[in-house]
Amino acid sequence: MNKNTGETNNEIPVINFPRLNDFDIHLFREGRHFKLYEKLGSHITSLDGRPGTCFGVWSPNAAKVSVIGNFNGWNPSSHQLFNRGDGSGIWEGFIPDIGKGEVYKYKIESNYNNYSVEKGDPFAFMWEEPPRTASIVWDKNFSWSDAEWLRSRKRDKDKPKPFSVYEMHIGSWKRNPGEGNRYLTYLELADQLPGYLNDMGYTHVEFMPVMEHPFYGSWGYQVTGYFAPSSRYGSPQDFMFLVNELHKKGIGVILDWVPSHFPSDQHGLSFFDGTHLYEHQDPREGYHPDWKSYIFNYGRNEVRCFLISNAMFWLDIYHADGLRVDAVASMLYRDYSREEGEWVPNRFGGRENLEAISFLKQVNEATHEEFPDILTIAEESTAWPMVSQPTHVGGLGFDMKWMMGWMHDTLNYFSKDPVYRKYHQNDITFSIVYAFSEKYTLPLSHDEVVHGKGSMAGKMPGDHWQKFSNLRLLYSYMFAHPGTKLLFMGNEIAQLNEWDHDKSMDWHLLQYGLHQGVNKTIKKLNDIYKKERALYELQFEDKGFEWIDISDSANCVISFVRRGNSKKDTIVAIFNFTPVVRYNYNIGVPAGGGWAEIFNSDEGELGGSNIRNKQPIKALEKHRHGRSHTLSLTLPPLGALFLKPDLS
């Protein structure tokens, strides 16, 4: 009989070799261990000079936990882990001669209902490529060369800066038609994506969830492998290489993170040890009716450790620059998408999810304490107050929040034929009423170009030329509006079809002039946004914005001023939302002298009719709109103008 295993067999024994010390267990049980990925899961190591792998899993209601794989013929009696016996519910052990690349699962026999199941490792660094569902022993080794990026990120963390994000789905950005229309690998993306983003002028890329997910059609929002990038596109080190290359080219990386729910796949987190371990037992609290998935039990300390460790993992091990947190609204409200009787009130009788609120604050505090220069961004669609305010003043602690109201109202306005827009001026101006209540990101995301909503170009009214003019006008309005920017892939080439995750973007459209024009428009807007401090320096403060004229609904024209900290950093933006050229259109401006037209969405090279203003435009000493000087302008059809004082 082997003294370590208590078993008589000829298999290689499991050695009782704890990786967690008493302080780890103390933090884990209190919900304050935020680097569990260093302790649980599988870790390649050696014991007394013999190579092998340590395994550790939280399974408090299990009677037995075994590691099974090809190495033991998937025999659950061969390699049983040890229960620590300290009430933590952690099972662990060292298996000699198991190394990198070994495929494995945990065989869990529960103390309840004779339940027996094979589970993937919640902390695995790599999983088999779906539809296979086993975990893989892997390491985190990589030679990073992005030190300069990380230094600059830290150095500039408190400086106002432009933030223009390219949101993309890795599997459908480009496909290889010569190889069965397969998606590109992480390494192929590393070769192509950084240069493209630099050429387009984006500051960041946001990847829709890269974490391993069994169903490709979930776009990554149904995660099973929380600590592993999807094997569909390559190894963990391949993804690290992609991030490294992006950083070397000056592009930040935002990862979509999904702590709101998880799928019911048997090999995943659900009913993990014969009990509802990660989720609530009561479906009124633990089951999401929209996504047919389970909701994390945010009131359980060990679950908090799992999730916060996961957020920390991507910032630490993969050098991510930020996390965009999915579906925050569904976390904040117990009655989210539920009818009366389908939800449980909180202890005060209210609809707020107090445990989720506490969790969101904790994850923001923990990540910013460890990495003060990263960003967290909330996809939150309600009027919940202070989402992007620090927790010490009562906020949730996010750095930014998606401005869903702006998105909805703006697309509603642009979808209307220009002849009717004069009756809906409020749709395009109302956002300023609340624009500075949060630190907002303006999103035109993947959600707006799927499920029958049509492409961004397809939403625009009018004939072919007007559709493209409207689209250039929409993007111009977006870049002039206060707040940071996010555009989903395909928007920048005026994709005509809805996004299809099984296909590549329609890159062939760039052979056509109007599509090229939209592409050039985004390049110009990104360039102006990064160069003109007036467009980003005070983008979260009301002193950076001032209406000139909000009332000309008859002509469907609006105009406003954007400002930086210096008086010289001033831009006037004027928008004509009709296809009618407006001659001798007068607006009041904050300074006399000459004004330069630095952007015109109707330029010929952008696909417009090339209605321009002669340079410089002289401001007349004439009062208008409460200002001492007036510009007489020609407003291009369905066009935007950006003007600034000519200081040459």
Description:
With 648 residues, the protein is α/β, with parallel strands linked by helices. The protein is 23% helix and 23% strand. Among the domains are: 22-136, Immunoglobulins (Immunoglobulin-like, Sandwich), CATH 2.60.40; 171-398, TIM Barrel, CATH 3.20.20.80; 543-645, Immunoglobulin-like, CATH 2.60.40. The strands form eight sheets. The protein has an eight-stranded parallel β-barrel. The protein has a six-stranded antiparallel beta sheet with strand order 24-25-26-31-28-29. A hairpin with a 6-residue loop joins strand 4 (82-83) and strand 5 (90-96). Helix 3 packs parallel to helix 4 (236-248). The protein is elongated, with a radius of gyration of 28 Å.
Annotation keywords:
8-stranded parallel β-barrel; 23% strand; 648 residues; 6-stranded antiparallel beta sheet; TIM Barrel; 15 helices; alpha/beta; Immunoglobulin-like
Work out the helix count.
15
Helix content: 10-25%
Number of strands: 31
User: Main sheet?
Assistant: 8 strands, parallel, barrel
Give the overall shape: elongated
Q: Provide the CATH top-level class of one domain.
A: Alpha Beta
Determine the mean pLDDT.
Answer: 95
**β-sheet strand percentage:** 15-25%
What would CATH call the homologous superfamily of one domain?
Answer: Glycosidases
Radius of gyration: 28 Å
- Structural class per helix/strand content? alpha/beta
Q: Determine the CATH topology of one domain.
A: TIM Barrel
Unreliable runs: 1-10
Strand order of the largest sheet: 10-13-16-19-20-21-22-23
- Shape-level CATH architecture of one domain: Alpha-Beta Barrel
End-to-end span in angstroms? Answer: 90 Å
